[in-house]
Automatic annotation (TrEMBL):
SUPFAM superfamilies: Sigma2 domain of RNA polymerase sigma factors, Sigma3 and sigma4 domains of RNA polymerase sigma factors. This is Putative RNA polymerase ECF-subfamily sigma factor. Belongs to the sigma-70 factor family. ECF subfamily. InterPro entries: RNA_pol_sigma-70-like, RNA_pol_sigma-70_dom, RNA_pol_sigma70_r2, RNA_pol_sigma70_r4_t2, RNA_pol_sigma_r2, RNA_pol_sigma_r3/r4-like, WH-like_DNA-bd_sf. Keywords: DNA-binding, Sigma factor, Transcription, Transcription regulation. GO terms for biological process: DNA-templated transcription initiation.
Amino acid sequence: MHGTVPSRVYICVTFEQFAVARLPSLLRYAVVLTGDRDLAQDVVQEVLARAQVKWRRISGSDSPDAYVRRMVLNEYLSWRRSWAFRNVHAAGERLAEIEASRGGVGDHADGVVEADALWNRLAILGRKQRAVLVLRYYEQLDDQSIADLLSCSPATVRSQASKALRTLRLEEQDQRQRIHAEEWS
């Protein structure tokens, strides 16, 4: 899993040390899930508040990092203010920063334009479809791992991914047709 640190590192780590060390990674993960930096901060803040209370149990788990990342995913999927997920703000600059931190090289402007387009397309997906794509392509998890996290079958994961990708392809095709029509008018 992306960003997972073996649990033996956290055996004697306090909650505060864990939070300081993992906060940037948790925020990046939440930003990719939510598409909104402010909402991502709210999600991570809520999760860390709950994790602090349960730290003794979490720190004794096989992977405290994976445990807290799952908490972030669950919080995202159950977030009460669901309207925010339909109103994803273009976060191209932030996504370009994330990609740059992963070693991406290229024209910054192209990356921002592509990231904005990606965020706009992801905004039309439902929460579970977006979560499946984030877990598959950002976290690089296999279908069984995603199914375990989402408490569903691998077939459901594949179905959700297929529907999400089809929706994104249709949206891209519609956008190309609109551009083509504008060029001829």
